[in-house]
Amino acid sequence: MAAAAAAAVGGQQPSQPELPAPGLALDKAATAAHLKAALSRPDNRAGAEELQALLERVLSAERPLAAAAGGEDAAAAGGGGGPGAAEEEALEWCKCLLAGGGGYDEFCAAVRAYDPAALCGLVWTANFVAYRCRTCGISPCMSLCAECFHQGDHTGHDFNMFRSQAGGACDCGDSNVMRESGFCKRHQIKSSSNIPCVPKDLLMMSEFVLPRFIFCLIQYLREGYNEPAADGPSEKDLNKVLQLLEPQISFLEDLTKMGGAMRSVLTQVLTNQQNYKDLTSGLGENACVKKSHEKYLIALKSSGLTYPEDKLVYGVQEPSAGTSSLAVQGFVGATGTLGQVDSSDEDDQDGSQGLGKRKRVKLSSGTKDQSIMDVLKHKSFLEELLFWTIKYEFPQKMVTFLLNMLPDQEYKVAFTKTFVQHYAFIMKTLKKSHESDTMSNRIVHISVQLFSNEELARQVTEECQLLDIMVTVLLYMMESCLIKSELQDEENSLHVVVNCGEALLKNNTYWPLVSDFINILSHQSVAKRFLEDHGLLVTWMNFVSFFQGMNLNKRELNEHVEFESQTYYAAFAAELEACAQPMWGLLSHCKVRETQEYTRNVVRYCLEALQDWFDAINFVDEPAPNQVTFHLPLHRYYAMFLSKAVKCQELDLDSVLPDQEMLMKLMIHPLQIQASLAEIHSNMWVRNGLQIKGQAMTYVQSHFCNSMIDPDIYLLQVCASRLDPDYFISSVFERFKVVDLLTMASQHQNTVLDAEHERSMLEGALTFLVILLSLRLHLGMSDDEILRAEMVAQLCMNDRTHSSLLDLIPENPNPKSGIIPGSYSFESVLSAVADFKAPVFEPGGSMQQGMYTPKAEVWDQEFDPVMVILRTVYRRDVQSAMDRYTAFLKQSGKFPGNPWPPYKKRTSLHPSYKGLMRLLHCKTLHIVLFTLLYKILMDHQNLSEHVLCMVLYLIELGLENSAEEESDEEASVGGPERCHDSWFPGSNLVSNMRHFINYVRVRVPETAPEVKRDSPASTSSDNLGSLQNSGTAQVFSLVAERRKKFQEIINRSSSEANQVVRPKTSSKWSAPGSAPQLTTAILEIKESILSLLIKLHHKLSGKQNSYYPPWLDDIEILIQPEIPKYSHGDGITAVERILLKAASQSRMNKRIIEEICRKVTPPVPPKKVTAAEKKTLDKEERRQKARERQQKLLAEFASRQKSFMETAMDVDSPENDIPMEITTAEPQVSEAVYDCVICGQSGPSSEDRPTGLVVLLQASSVLGQCRDNVEPKKLPISEEEQIYPWDTCAAVHDVRLSLLQRYFKDSSCLLAVSIGWEGGVYVQTCGHTLHIDCHKSYMESLRNDQVLQGFSVDKGEFTCPLCRQFANSVLPCYPGSNVENNPWQRPSNKSIQDLIKEVEELQGRPGAFPVSISSETNLSKEMESVMKDIKNTTQKKYRDYSKTPGSPDNDFLFMYSVARTNLELELIHRGGNLCSGGASTAGKRSCLNQLFHVLALHMRLYSIDSEYNPWRKLTQLEEMNPQLGYEEQQPEVPILYHDVTSLLLIQILMMPQPLRKDHFTCIVKVLFTLLYTQALAALSVKCSEEDRSAWKHAGALKKSTCDAEKSYEVLLSFVISELFKGKLYHEEGTQECAMVNPISWSPESMEKCLQDFCLPFLRITSLLQHHLFGEDLPGCQEEEEFSVLASCLGLLPTFYQTEHPFISASCLDWPVPAFDIITQWCFEIKSFTERHAEQGKALLIQESKWKLPHLLQLPENYNTIFQYYHRKTCSVCTKVPKDPAVCLVCGTFVCLKGLCCKQQSYCECVLHSQNCGAGTGIFLLINASVIIIIRGHRFCLWGSVYLDAHGEEDRDLRRGKPLYICKERYKVLEQQWISHTFDHINKRWGPHYNGL
Fold first, then answer.
1. Contact (CB, 8 A) for 36 and 101
2. Which residues contact 1264 (CB under 8 A, 6 or more apart)?
């Protein structure tokens, strides 16, 4: 092939145009076939030449791209058909040539057949949904496409779904990255064997055509790239070029998808060096090629790269033999000539920075590294393609093409090497890029595919010096943003640090490079090379030292800092990512003894770097005051490798520790951080702004703590275990600035600390000591113990969800190490320490997640306050843990009082750290403890219980860790006289405890009380056990002491005299006593630690002689002290425990304790006894008291509020509600009295000052969603499943109305049915009333109040002033009587005929209201305005059903339908029947009564024509006029087609209010006769021909019996015979008979059928009666519901016998002879059914059995929804929406916020919520698993009904764990939808501005 290509190049004469051009153009296929044949011959030179010539012409790059902004080129290209056409043509040619004359598609298919699909390799871009399975992954970056994941078997694995951030590729089939068990079915088979060999001629043409094609592409890229002006290439130009090249690159991408065979051809083409050389060298005569080569060289040069043409090729291409390229000799401090690399790079720093850098970076002559940075030689197409890919900032298409080739192994290696070769260039481009984020993602997209593979990484490390390149590039990158460090010595510091304010750090631009570095270090073979290579380690430590001391904070002492910089984020992120993560990566390979050497290397170079650092910042012995940096990565490297060395590698600690002087320096900065933490928490840094608190929190936060605070504390523990304990302790107190406080005097002066900070700083110092001495994280705990301790600490602070626990438990940041989240140990420890609390639902609607809470035994035995303090980010968490602990002890009865933090026995120390315990046995500490105990006893200021607690803790720790039983004869301490010998004889705490101290000399201010006393002349000599002369008084100065120590050590360690360091003395830090106003006083003390403890016991218990040694009763206690590992209790128990331990450890102590107790001790402080109870009422105590008072008040208030809420707002639990009526009137008062919740006055509602109920009006379509089957519909999860709304209640009612409107008179149609099934107005109230004028002023004040958001005052919305329930209108209360005592209610004994007449008269009398409407009173105005509100609540389309718009009939229909809607909804809230009985579910919250008044008032404005009043038709016989048939165009609606419930409401609302009970009963009785007749008619239509004739005869026989009018058989037969006349049954063909299932009708089944037909009417009527007359509803069984309701309504005669089975017909009470009226009713239908029998029949059968409404049924597993919907296309724009959502009411798929589906500025969700739910929408957001509610103009996030296995939501699917439906939550959601309580229960509403 190469030969052919060469020949072609040779024959590139331009004398080729004789080819018959037009012919060729016509028939590409023929030409291709001809060429293919020519090339297949053995001698194919001629064919090859011909092909080359053709390609030369077709693919000529002489038509420059139009996009190239070179002016003259563009002009030239202007002619002709535009470049696009030519490009298209060229592609067509290529396709034809590849296919060799055949069809291109067939060719593709043929090539695919030879694809050995061993790897998936599917490449995806950002936002693609992929999976990661930790169980199957070898590399942590492993990922699978959804298809491979679902095809494989991952049941029970630890997997999650994730949204790709940078893009990725599927690893299925790659056994280097994942285990084979996880491969999917497609990639399991090693299919190489059974794939046939590729026939030679299939791909022959490709081998010739593709090199030219790719060269052509490269030429375009060269042409298109114009060297940018100063500001970088304008994005526009580059994008233009890329857009034009889109088809070419896509063509290449399609080729890669043809499978393995084509990929290997491409690999050959891309990597063949000969081809590249021949085509691109620019040596031929072709001018175009020459020009293009020049552009290429210019581009290289401008990138600061040289093209080594003549020189020997060195550097990257030739791997040096075996040794590392960074030769150690020439390489002391830093890397190569990086200091002044290529001036052409556009980042010249300003002079000062440059200067610092030059000075710092020691230059060395290593040409090699220089070559890493700026030599590139391209030898193949692949290399140059990558170069341009980088130049154009990684266009997505190119990246995808390059990655699609990766399944080809040969290509993978070549590409990886090329990538490494360009690494430095990538970094430079990245630094200059404006779009660094996108570019970073694309880089990582590529590199993660290459470096996750250990084999590949190892190969490249060996052959291309990958490690050297990476480290050098990182170092070089950071060097561009260095500044001089101001730590310590600002003027002369030579140290440089990174500047966290630079974009490079602020925007995390470095992360792609760092993440690659971390990735390759996770491979053992690579990490070992790194750890063995001394040169690399030196360079790396150099890199790390750039971060040492960055982001320095200086404490502001005067005014608040003006600008709070937020650079600390960048600093913490940089230390974690660039320093800590590589460190964890390296540590993970130092786990075994064999790796000791590596640790020694790291420690060695780390110490060297630290020594350099100390020199560079001129550090002697004192840290500069008032500055702190949280970043000491070198210290932390050192600490972590030490810890590893001891824990895993059995190294001797001392062999890797430096001398004492170095240790002293090492401890200073970490200690400074600990002291600063205390200062920050004491508000001493408050002038630095909030950000300093942010730093203190981040430092201990779970993601950072084990890379920051833990190593710091460990390093301090190491220093403490090796340094002199007295020196260490005094350093601590000095750093914490509390030295001056540690005096026996009651007053003192602190030169460095304000009094208000003293106490918290002292607490800080003691707490730090306790942590230092009790923490064992690195001192001997095993990994499992650590995990357990961490988990217990987090759970003790608060109950936690599973995911937050995973997040809070620090894990080694490197994913390959140790504990992987979700791994075995995590789950097993969790189940051992915690109980799972399943998610609960409070009726208030707030939803809990599944939580873990500590088991009782954990509180009992493992609660560790020290760990809690170490891990709390917020101080309040410590308090929270203590409160929970207290609650546990109270509840379990272990301790009733206020317990102290429990003392916990620690794991034993690793032998290497035994020295740490010497801190507890040094005189300095004992003096401090003695002093503090004394001060506490004497009630000095600034001491707290916390201090005492820590002091006792330290004493107890000392007793636990004392040396073996000391002999009673104390051996005198040998050696020179030590410092504090005058205080204590030895250093053992056990013996020092009993040592009495008599006099102490103190320096006190002259004002102090001590000065006035005379020093006692003689001392009594009863000093028990005192070993010293009582005359000497002690003086104690920590600071002077420390100076002396430091001097000693330094003199000792440096033999040369000239190195003696003089201690710096600054006035500020000198020993206390420098201030002149101090004077010396001698105090008489005469106490020992033991005596102080015993007195303390008396003081705490508030009793004299309260301590009695327990061993006096039971000597056993001392011999076998049953001291539990863990003890609960308060200070008193702590003191007792300590005394017992002291006694059991030494007989002397035991004796002394007994002696002290024998003496009757007078009260210690010279105060009243009460002082003991009072303790010190310092500020804190007073605050505490105030807090308690406040709590009490709040609790009282809360309980009041709660009891009020229960009565007023009980939304979800209707059953247990106490029925309360609105009124509070006594029985004898007939007027209702209302309380106004605004002005607080009570009184009746009157005409001129009406009272109103606070109501919420909302449009509702819940009723319309009822269906006639019980099972809810399922949410569609495949294309086949669809939901059609034909069978919903709303649809059925709509059909009925339009059917009536087709055949009957419009005005009468509007009286025959109800509307409001969709968009009906529902009225609900919280039950509170207010004066309407008060409400107006309330609204005014809301309008002026700017703060209120969440509802819009302009729309009339407000919250109830009392219970804060959402509302939007006020319903006036009708003045007048109280419901119960209604005089109208008394039954009268009039006959039904009289009542019927009365009803008719009352209806006819207009304005029979007490208030005549003409007189405009306030009340009537309000009633009108509320009516307007009700109308505006729903949309026009839900109100206007009339054919003549705006007809009054419309309003009439709308008004009585509002009543209907509210009654029907109440029925649904009661579960669809009235069996439960009882008062209204809404208790006092029903407003139907008031609503009725308002509606009635308005209904009476429209009088019905008296000749067409349905009442007449129901109660009077008219003479029939058969001629009346069809004179008018459209007849009235026959009465049998009327909806009876609607008739009821019309009749009642037309009556003057208040209504009389007997009139009501009369109306019901009359309507029941009609209803019953309808039931019979419907029954007759449903049954078959034979049944009908049978019944007809059966009934006719009984017609003459006495109660024929009450026998359903008789009536049925009569109805059948009447309807028979109207041809109603005639149309039935045979097919209908077949349809109606032949039920054998028994009397029982007929009775049931009739009852079912009538029940809905009875239920609504009973409810209405209940509301109008306040009667209770009786409860009953379901089967007897009909009879109970009938008797309750007065339909059943009271003397009705209950023996024989109940028959519904017995309720009938015909006002006129039954048969006559039935005949009349049937006659109306007759004329209609003669013409339209079908419709006539349909109208008779009314569907009355609606089931309760439900939301759609959701699938068990969320994944089923997600997989179907997240790829589903939008029906409007056929794109996949960014935020898909689905409606849970009807299953419609909508785009959330999708602009494509916007209509008149409404987005699709809002629009749908109006159409589907009349303004209420419930949507499931597919990509977030969250449910969102839209209510009118507001929306809220409701939460999720899908929870993971741990009962947690996964909003936005961030964790990607499998989610399962939580049925209880879904029920809650449905309940809120049905009961219309979204507004009340959900709190966080916001306006959506129609944008959802």
1. yes
2. 1288, 1289, 1290, 1291, 1293, 1317, 1318
Give the number of other Cβ atoms within 10 Å of residue 436's Cβ: 22
Alpha helices in 981-1088 (DSSP H): 989-992, 1009-1012, 1038-1053
Residue 541, CB half-sphere, CA atoms under 13 Å: how many?
27
Query: In Å, what is the CA distance from 1116 to each residue of 504, 1121, 1144, 1148, 1158?
Result: 70, 7, 10, 17, 21
End-to-end CA, the chain: 61
Instruction: Give the residue-averaged pLDDT of 1139-1150.
Output: 88
Write the CB contacts of 1220 (distance below 8 Å, at least 6 apart in sequence): 1207, 1327, 1483, 1484
DSSP state at residue 775:
-
Q: What's the CA gap between 1010 and 1426, in Å, rounded?
A: 82
- List the one residue out of 410, 349, 359, 122 whose CA is nearest residue 256: 122
Beta strands in 474-599 (DSSP E): 482-484, 496-498, 553-554
348: tokens are 């010249």
Region label for 1712, one of left (φ > 0), alpha (ψ between -120 and 50) or beta (otherwise): beta
Residue type, position 342, single letter:
D
Contact 1084, 1007 (CB under 8 A): no
Q: What is the pLDDT of residues 1413-1439, one digit of tens each?
A: 445 788 888 888 899 999 989 888 888
For residue 500, the SS3 value is: coil
What's the chain's Rg over C-alpha atoms? 46
* CA atoms within 13 A of residue 583's CA, in its CB half-sphere: 29
* Range list of H helices, 184-312: 185-188, 204-224, 235-256, 260-271, 273-280, 287-302
pLDDT tens readout for residues 1868-1880 = 999 999 999 998 8
Q: pTM value?
A: 0.82
> Distance (Å, rounded) from C-alpha 1779 to C-alpha 1795?
11
Amino acid (1-letter code) at residue 680: I
User: DSSP code of 80?
Assistant: T
Q: Which residues contact 1761 (CB under 8 A, 6 or more apart)?
A: 1275, 1277, 1754, 1755, 1782, 1820, 1822
- Rounded (10°) CA dihedral 1506, 1509, 1513, 1519: 30
Answer whether 635's CB lies under 8 Å from 593's CB. no
Tokens of 509: 């631009």
Neighbours of 1216 (CB within 10 A): 7
Q: Collapse the DSSP code of 971 into the 3-class scheme (helix H, G, I; strand E, B; otherwise coil) and give the result.
A: coil
Provide the pLDDT for residue 712.
97
Report the C-alpha gap between 425 and 431 in whole angstroms.
Answer: 10
Read off the pLDDT of residues 491-514 as tens digits, 9 standing for 90 and up: 888 899 999 988 888 888 999 999
Distance (Å, rounded) from C-alpha 35 to C-alpha 18? 16
| DSSP structural state of residue 1104 | T
Q: Do 1668 and 1545 touch, CB atoms closer than 8 A?
A: no
Q: Residue 542 and residue 1419: Cα distance in Å, rounded? A: 86
